Amino acid sequence: MPGQNAGTGSEPDRLEELRDLVVRPERKRLDRVEKRLDDPAERSREVAEVLPAAVEESRDQGKLDKAMAPIVEDAIRISVRKDARSFAEALFPVMGPAIRRAIADTVSRMVQSLNQAVENSLSAQGLKWRLEAWRTGRPFGEVVLLHSLVYRVEQVFLIHRETGLLLQHLAAENVTGQDGAMISGMLTAIQDFVHDSFGGGEETLDSFRVGELVVWVEAGSTAVLAAVIRGTPPESLKEVLQEALNSVLVGHGEELRKFDGDPALFEAVRPELTECLRAHYERRKARVPAAAWVAGAAILLAAAVWIFFTVRDNQRWNRYVDRLDSEPGVVVVDAGRRGSRFRVSGLLDPLAAAPSELMPGYGIRAARVDQAWESYEAADPEIVARRARILLEAPESVDFEVRDGVLHASGTAGHEWLVRVTDRARFVGGVERLDAGRVADNEMAALAGDIEKQTVLFPVGSTRPETGWRAPVNAVAGLFGQLVRLGREIGRGAGLELVGHADRSGEQGRNRELSLERATAVQERLVSMGIDSSLITIRGAGNAEPLCEERTEQDRARNRSVTFAVAFR
Amino acid sequence: MLGAFAVGKTSLVRQYVDSIFSDKYLTTVGVKIDSKPVKLGRTEVNLILWDLQGENAFRETRLSYLRGASGHIIVADGTRPTTLDAALEIAAGVRDLHPGVARVLLLNKADLVREWTVPKAAAEDLAAQGWNVLRTSAKSGEGVEQAFLALTRMMLEGS
Q1: Which of A146, A339, A537, B1 could staple B9 via S-S, CB 3.0–4.6 A?
Q2: Does pLDDT of A476 surpass 70?
């Protein structure tokens, strides 16, 4: 305190002085201690010195852990918030592979992926090709070329993430690599651009396509692996790239962190990266599965069967139609097939056979056929004959045949019918003229039969008949008269033939004369009874036509006779 | 390469890498990358040049491009003083994020020195502050090679 008396002064001043004197040494020490306490740098230095030991001490007591726990948690949280990347970087080498592996396991367990099939076939494929090469005598390379390429990793870039500098660049055979440094730089720039533009987080560009090439980018915490692939790579290739990147990250983590621009350190990773230069070829042969063969065969079979049945049906139908058309009274105008049904139409005479009746014979079901007939009057001879039969009410015993419009009748019929038919025949459609000449008139035939039963007997060598000749001659006259009358009704003439006979005795020539004279004798008597002489003819048969064998006298007597025969014209 | 619009960043790169200069001004969009091998003494390096889009102020959006860079070239146009202010502002912002990175400041368009409005004193002041300031002309080529070599030397010494 300058400018103040030392001796004089107030009480407080002197107390002060005293105090000062007493505590001066201590004061220095106090000052020093104060300084230490006030100076934060000093204080922290001292605490830092004792802190490790203090922590060790408190660890035994166990309270420090509890006290530190929330602090550590908060510290981690703050660190993550401030810069998540560095935190992740620290954990990445451990967590990264574990996470990837877990995911990969799950996926491969859940799904039977095509990738596995591709992977498996890759090794078998090589063997097959070698076999083919050996078998065909072609060089293996040629066989490989024969197969088409599925995918091929052409280039691989290992890039330092932080700087975008190129660490390693590999190219497959026959691939012209570009300036790797430029590419890695641009890739990194693109990644940054994408990251900046499309919202932060850890999202990065992981693939892009350029024509036939696709670039896959696998990003790790400190390094990035980019693969240029030609073709269509399978998903499993991603795993390969990830594995390779991972092994680089783990195996060269320190070098990556301290990278100063010298890529020589990373020569060692070339073998791992070469692993990524994979390729897969596949013969582009469409394999037809067995099911397709079976289906194809079944279809072919079905088609063949269908064709067979259709052709058979058509053949049958055509044969049927031909047959039908040739049937008298049927004129087929149109016949064909519409879908599964048949169709036939034309003209049908009511007297013709029903078309349906012919069908079974050709294996055709009437239900499948649509028929459309118009009736007409056929001029077919058969139909005309049938028509005649019906219209003329012909008996069963008469047969008809039509030729050139002429109705020829034959058989036998009653006289009455014969009388009627001559008039009616003209009105039958298709008949110009009736020829009934060959239909035997039953009544007339009966009369003729009766006439021919008669005989006139003669004694030996005589031309005058035995007594009792009147009966037969009368009979003949009467019968023949009737016959002629009946014949006139139907326009048929009748003639009577008298045949004289002689027995065997006597001379041949004489017997002939004798028989003729006998026939003449009977003729004279018939004429006298009114029979028209122009209708009678006589003949002497001698003993050439005996009535019976001559064994007895009676036989001989019988042979000396005149017999009658009727002839119709 | 950092700096304001049309200060000559791309032209400097073109001059250095391809030895060509074109009067036509095409603004760089995003970033363009070039590479140039350099031999310094017995050391051979490959410079990967990131030519960034020009910006009149420091913007945070383009930061990722700067990540990992070993050196910065900050360019200003001698005929436009505002570009120098912009250059310094960018440099300051960048330094905060990436301290300790080698850098040079280029006053470009030296061929138009007669039209320069940036006072000479400014360059000297900056040099005094520790900046490595160089005068360049992308058109004539003056100082271009030296600038890149200087930065390369700084980067090699620093590593």
Answers
A1: B1
A2: yes
